[in-house]
Amino acid sequence: MSGLSGLFGLTGLTGLAVPMSAAAAGPASPADMFAARMQMGFSLGWHIVLACLGVGMPALLLFTEWRALRTGDDEYLRLVHRWAKAVGVLFAVGAVSGTILSFEMGLLWPGLMGVYGEVIGLPFALEGNAFFLEAIFIGVYLYAWGRLSPRLHLLTGVPVLVAGVASAFFVVTANAWMNQPVGFTLEGGRIRDVDPWRAMMNPATPPQTLHMIIAAFMVTGFTVASVYAVALLRGRRDRYHRLGFAIPFALGAVFAPIQIVVGDYAARFLAEYQPVKLAAMEGVFRTRSHAPLSLGGVAVNEEMRYAVEIPSGLSLLVGNSPSTVVRGLDTVPVADRPPVTTVHLAFDTMVAVGFFLLLLSAWFAVAWWRHRDLPRSPWFLRLAAISGVAAAAAVESGWIVTEVGRQPWTVYGRLRTVDAVNPVPGLWAGFVVVLLVYAVLTVATVYVLRRMARASRTPEAAGEETHAPQEPEEPAQGATPATGDRG
């Protein structure tokens, strides 16, 4: 699924000359700037979950369909059919929310796109191409059931996965550029000597794109698994539901430890390139060695209150030595500091959820290694049932850290948010309209997905057979215990 929809690159760049004429009216009022930030944040927060599923669901489809071809097991094929229908719905909804975002970029932030559009236009244009490629092959994949050979049909899903990952990569490179603006010179308020490839492959691109794409696979895996965890808790323990849980949960579990390593890499990057953001994340108000690692707490009078501190923990993480000097918020004026409590608590939430998912993944891995089965404790399924919401919360918190931690800058060190926002009054009205649109989208999406889920339980659904509600049959000889009866 498109990171911001293919229209982002078109509308977001070509439709910006109109609001730029309003810039002469002066800066936006604090209320209107807050409304613009709330609208953009809400829209991105709503869309990012769909974008994550758009990256990860094709991987689940490809793996499960490959297993169906390899084993001849119809249960894998049932999963693929049902997941593919959900992908079609989510892609359509994501295209709508992505289109809304494309207009918001142009209408709310003319100071950004009007000045720097030619610098970051390349990733948006490439993202548009990836979006259209993804849309075409999703249509082929859904339409071609029974019309192509099984192996050829499997291959039609490959461009969907590649385009989804590419779309996310291109959009995140644009955001990474906002954190590390390179690839141009600014002379007399005009952009010159643009190097779009250097801008796209800026120093922040590797940590941000890795962190986001891995997060997308984790959100997908744990979200889909959580649906089947609820079904298992309700007694639907047949092989279909156990497969529906095990496959996506394994996807999330594989990436959980990798994400911890990538997160450490991203934090070390911030220590070098965006020390103010790192200082806000950890509540470091003064530059010092032996900087502690603060867990929880709130910022009061330039110090962290109620936090649990690990002595020298931050210095060790940043530079592998307790004597490593960590630059604090005292290196910049007060006006250039982000809101510390917001950034710090969002960062703590992201890290806490990351380790929760890591421990849950380890529980799953140990049980599978020892018994070739799911963990038998009902507490495992209860925790797995909330893992999808937890993973989504971690992604939302991570983006709060990225965006709020960059404030008061829209383009770090180059363009302040107050200078990027549209100065036209009355932005609150637009925010209310957008909230209503997303409310309708949310209700409609949940309604359609629930109807599809209920229809899939009937014998008539897609001509598929259903399992009897009694205890599942014993697995066939050689079947893995995790996909048979738990006993």
TrEMBL record:
<keyword id="KW-0408">Iron</keyword>
<feature type="transmembrane region" description="Helical">
    <location>
        <begin position="210"/>
        <end position="231"/>
    </location>
</feature>
<dbReference type="GO" id="GO:0070069">
    <property type="term" value="C:cytochrome complex"/>
</dbReference>
<keyword id="KW-0249">Electron transport</keyword>
<keyword id="KW-0560">Oxidoreductase</keyword>
<dbReference type="InterPro" id="IPR002585">
    <property type="entry name" value="Cyt-d_ubiquinol_oxidase_su_1"/>
</dbReference>
<comment type="similarity">
    <text>Belongs to the cytochrome ubiquinol oxidase subunit 1 family.</text>
</comment>
<feature type="transmembrane region" description="Helical">
    <location>
        <begin position="345"/>
        <end position="367"/>
    </location>
</feature>
<keyword id="KW-0349">Heme</keyword>
<keyword id="KW-0479">Metal-binding</keyword>
<feature type="transmembrane region" description="Helical">
    <location>
        <begin position="158"/>
        <end position="178"/>
    </location>
</feature>
<keyword id="KW-1133">Transmembrane helix</keyword>
<dbReference type="Pfam" id="PF01654">
    <property type="entry name" value="Cyt_bd_oxida_I"/>
</dbReference>
<feature type="region of interest" description="Disordered">
    <location>
        <begin position="457"/>
        <end position="487"/>
    </location>
</feature>
<feature type="transmembrane region" description="Helical">
    <location>
        <begin position="243"/>
        <end position="262"/>
    </location>
</feature>
<keyword id="KW-0813">Transport</keyword>
<feature type="transmembrane region" description="Helical">
    <location>
        <begin position="46"/>
        <end position="66"/>
    </location>
</feature>
<dbReference type="GO" id="GO:0019646">
    <property type="term" value="P:aerobic electron transport chain"/>
</dbReference>
<dbReference type="GO" id="GO:0009055">
    <property type="term" value="F:electron transfer activity"/>
</dbReference>
<dbReference type="GO" id="GO:0005886">
    <property type="term" value="C:plasma membrane"/>
</dbReference>
<feature type="signal peptide">
    <location>
        <begin position="1"/>
        <end position="24"/>
    </location>
</feature>
<dbReference type="GO" id="GO:0046872">
    <property type="term" value="F:metal ion binding"/>
</dbReference>
<dbReference type="GO" id="GO:0020037">
    <property type="term" value="F:heme binding"/>
</dbReference>
<feature type="transmembrane region" description="Helical">
    <location>
        <begin position="87"/>
        <end position="109"/>
    </location>
</feature>
<keyword id="KW-0472">Membrane</keyword>
<feature type="transmembrane region" description="Helical">
    <location>
        <begin position="427"/>
        <end position="449"/>
    </location>
</feature>
<protein>
    <submittedName>
        <fullName>Cytochrome d ubiquinol oxidase subunit I</fullName>
        <ecNumber>1.10.3.-</ecNumber>
    </submittedName>
</protein>
<feature type="transmembrane region" description="Helical">
    <location>
        <begin position="129"/>
        <end position="146"/>
    </location>
</feature>
<keyword id="KW-1003">Cell membrane</keyword>
<dbReference type="GO" id="GO:0016682">
    <property type="term" value="F:oxidoreductase activity, acting on diphenols and related substances as donors, oxygen as acceptor"/>
</dbReference>
<keyword id="KW-0812">Transmembrane</keyword>
<feature type="transmembrane region" description="Helical">
    <location>
        <begin position="379"/>
        <end position="401"/>
    </location>
</feature>
<keyword id="KW-0732">Signal</keyword>
